[in-house]
Automatic annotation (TrEMBL):
Domain Signal transduction histidine kinase internal region: 164-241
Keyword Transferase: yes
Origin superkingdom: Bacteria
Keyword list, A-Z: Kinase, Membrane, Transferase, Transmembrane, Transmembrane helix
GO CC terms: membrane
InterPro entries in the cross-refs: Bact_2-comp_sensor_kinase, HATPase_C_sf, Sig_transdc_His_kin_internal
SUPFAM superfamilies: ATPase domain of HSP90 chaperone/DNA topoisomerase II/histidine kinase
MF GO annotations: phosphorelay sensor kinase activity
Transmembrane helix among keywords: yes
Pfam families: His_kinase (PF06580)
Protein name: Histidine kinase
Amino acid sequence: MTTLVNDTRQAWYSRRWAQIFLHAVAWITLFSLPYLLRPSPDQHRGPDPDERYWHIHFIINAILLTLFFYLNSNILIPKLIYRKKYLQFGGVLLLLFATLIYLRYLFVQSFITHKQAELKPTILFTFFTVLFILACSTAWRMIRDKMNADRLASAKENENLKTELSLLRSQVSPHFMFNVLNNMVALARKQSDQLEPSLIKLSSLMRYMLYEADEDTVALDKETDYLQSYIDLQQQRFGAKVQVNVSMQLPEHGYEIEPMLLIPFVENAFKHGTGLIPDARIDIELRARQGLLQFSVMNKYNPEYTEIKDKTSGIGLTNVKRRLNLLYKDNYQLLISKKEGWFVVSLQLHLH
């Protein structure tokens, strides 16, 4: 299954049904004005023989202007203006402007009997009408995008404040730290040669947590070094009880990633993939090339063993899902599944 989480709450006027309703009211009001504000008919002149054709022309013109409004706001601005393709944008506008002039001129020439079609009034009328719709459409699109950007920035800020404590508690479990320290005490008593490299790994792990994790992004190789130090300490703790296979391949040029984004998956594997599990095994694989990170963690689990969950159970995975959705939106895919005695996490991420 693909896990997508969206905690951003929208105001009522940002919801789809509200936008449709407000747009409908605006269009009805705008196109009703010519009928509401027109003068009373002159009884001495009699009815206009072409009035029916003018109504048809008004309806067709209203439909074309409405289509132009949404064409500009939904396609031209994001595809051309935001990508700084101003010449293409100007060319499309000229083409649409010429098309509207031709259609109005052709209509008057073909259906209006008592009035001669004139090019100059047609150009002026179409120009100011198109300019008005263009201005309204552009303003609406930019205001909407600004509101969305502000809402997303606010959601990111609130999310960081709300999850800071739970992230610190979940990324490296206190149980893990106590077990590593107890293991080092045992190594010191034995005067083992493994004590010094273990202390160095623990020091680098703590340094990364205290200093690097405060940055918005870190180099991918630093994140993988942190993962490797964590895995090495866990391997030292479990020894031959758990088979751990690690494969990490990084490109020569560096990528950046949000700090401590991958560790919850590894910690979850060691937390739930050890214990009362025959032939316990954890496979960790990381590949990064052409701007795409492929990261997978697999651990065996015992479906017959019911684990007693504490208050922090599941906090790590829940947090990382929320962070992925806020930071990467549509630029990631997270798959979590259980099959044939294996718990599998697979992450594809477009890197910076």
